[in-house]
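F.,

This is the one I mentioned.
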């Protein structure tokens, strides 16, 4: 019997991962830093047409694109003359389990079935678990979802508990853990002991599944407006949503469309902290995932992460929890659409962005998610108050303090997204390389980084030397 100790399991992680995703990542290695990303995506994934066919089999995709006419009207009322872009929303809640995560899960579960695996495992506290469970049910595979659920008091957020019940409703076994480092250990242990497929969010399968989202919305936007979107705003967490959408836009020929990432600003909160775990109201789409996965994408549960946002992101906007709750209510009251707050992170940023743009510009928000009782702002704000977080009305830009205070705007003019400089992310990416012991860059590294960071090689050399000299 293999050694089940923490250190022994972690030492076997590469071997476990290779067996559980069916990908030989060594084939794509160029140096310790560089790898052939596009070759990996081409050889391991599926063509766009194949992905569309796989998704049609289980009812995934072809979700409606809806113009938010009342919100656009409101934006124009509070903007300077001639400003206020049209805002459209891709209603991903129309997918089988209620979010865009069905697109990722559909391809991973299909691949698991194709390779002969008897079941799939996903480590997630978000909508992805329900999506994997739903797709596994459709394909007749067993499913285990490993979920970080509780703090050390045994208390879990209403949204996470609801998602756990949703996974069970689709027939999955749900393993619920307390916050801490044991999540990855148990995940590896279960993969090894069951021999199930790792339905990771970060394989080429998952990203290929999201490409149809970008492809569809481009075609729909052309039909509705006669042109591609000027901007697509994407809620950003681990990077797969943004990466897949941007790749899909390119495959549709929408090369001029700007891709904007949007995250809830949770700066100051530590995601692995027992104290902070229940002092945040968002389990995904926040900076606790968005920044670490942008600056160190290969920190994921596979050796080479297919989600690489700095290749595709044109701008990164941060919004507050209170603003997103406010916009969640706005979407319901003005457009008659009750959708979960996580998806409305991008809508919040889009409202701020639309105020900058001329009226003939088009902004597409590329996702929504289902709403259940645990996701309602009322449930989340009550839970925040129970855990010592102050909730008040006012200007979030001035008063917001993640983990201490949620500030709900008093009027729509107080929705103001904050730019996070992309060069700051790029510099942090290079700092991560130095932290891992890389103090010289080979020619192949520079070529890879030039694409991964969208910077010319001279600029990378300059920035890398600055990091080495000044930290």
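My design for it:
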């Amino acid at each position: 019997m293999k050694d089940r100790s923490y250190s022994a399991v972690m030492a076997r992680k590469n071997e476990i991962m290779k067996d559980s995703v069916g990908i030989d990542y060594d084939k794509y290695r160029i140096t310790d830093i560089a790898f052939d990303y596009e070759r990996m995506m081409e050889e391991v994934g599926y063509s766009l047409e194949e992905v569309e066919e796989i998704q049609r089999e289980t009812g995934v995709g072809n979700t409606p694109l809806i113009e938010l006419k009342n919100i656009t009207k409101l934006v124009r009322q509070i903007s300077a003359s001639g400003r206020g872009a049209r805002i459209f929303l891709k209603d991903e809640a129309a997918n089988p389990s209620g979010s865009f995560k069905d697109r990722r899960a559909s391809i991973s579960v299909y691949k698991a079935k194709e390779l002969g695996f008897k079941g799939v495992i996903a480590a997630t506290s978000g909508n992805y678990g329900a999506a994997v469970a739903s797709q596994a049910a459709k394909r007749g595979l067993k499913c285990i979802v490993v979920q970080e659920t509780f703090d050390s008091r045994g208390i879990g957020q209403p949204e996470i508990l609801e998602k756990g019940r949703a996974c069970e409703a689709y027939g999955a076994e749900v393993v619920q853990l307390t916050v801490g480092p044991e999540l990855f250990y148990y995940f590896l242990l279960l993969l090894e002991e069951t021999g199930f497929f790792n339905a990771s969010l970060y394989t080429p399968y998952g990203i290929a599944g999201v490409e149809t989202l970008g492809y569809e919305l481009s075609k729909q936007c052309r039909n509705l407006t006669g042109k591609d979107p000027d901007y697509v705003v994407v809620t950003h967490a681990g990077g797969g949503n943004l990466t897949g959408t941007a790749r899909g836009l390119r495959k549709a020929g929408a090369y001029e469309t700007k891709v904007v990432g949007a995250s809830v600003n949770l700066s100051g909160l530590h995601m692995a902290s027992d104290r902070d775990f229940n002092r945040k109201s968002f389990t995904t789409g926040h900076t606790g995932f968005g920044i670490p996965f942008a600056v160190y994408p290969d920190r994921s549960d596979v050796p080479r992460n297919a989600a690489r946002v700095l290749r595709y992101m044109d701008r990164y906007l941060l919004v507050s929890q209170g603003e997103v709750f406010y916009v969640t209510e706005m979407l319901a009251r003005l457009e008659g659409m009750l959708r979960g707050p996580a998806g409305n992170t991008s809508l919040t940023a889009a409202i701020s962005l639309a105020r900058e743009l001329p009226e003939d510009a088009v902004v597409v928000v590329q996702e929504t998610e289902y709403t259940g009782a645990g996701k309602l702002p009322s449930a989340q704000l009550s839970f925040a108050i129970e855990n010592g977080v102050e909730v008040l009305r006012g200007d979030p830009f001035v008063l917001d303090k993640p983990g201490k205070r949620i500030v709900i705007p008093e009027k729509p003019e107080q929705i103001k997204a904050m730019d996070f400089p992309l060069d700051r992310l790029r510099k942090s990416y290079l700092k991560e390389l130095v932290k891992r012991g890389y103090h010289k860059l080979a020619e192949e590294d520079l070529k890879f980084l030039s694409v991964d960071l969208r910077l010319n090689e001279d600029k990378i050399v300059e920035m890398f030397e600055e990091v080495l000299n000044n930290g």
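The mean pLDDT is 94.

Talk soon.
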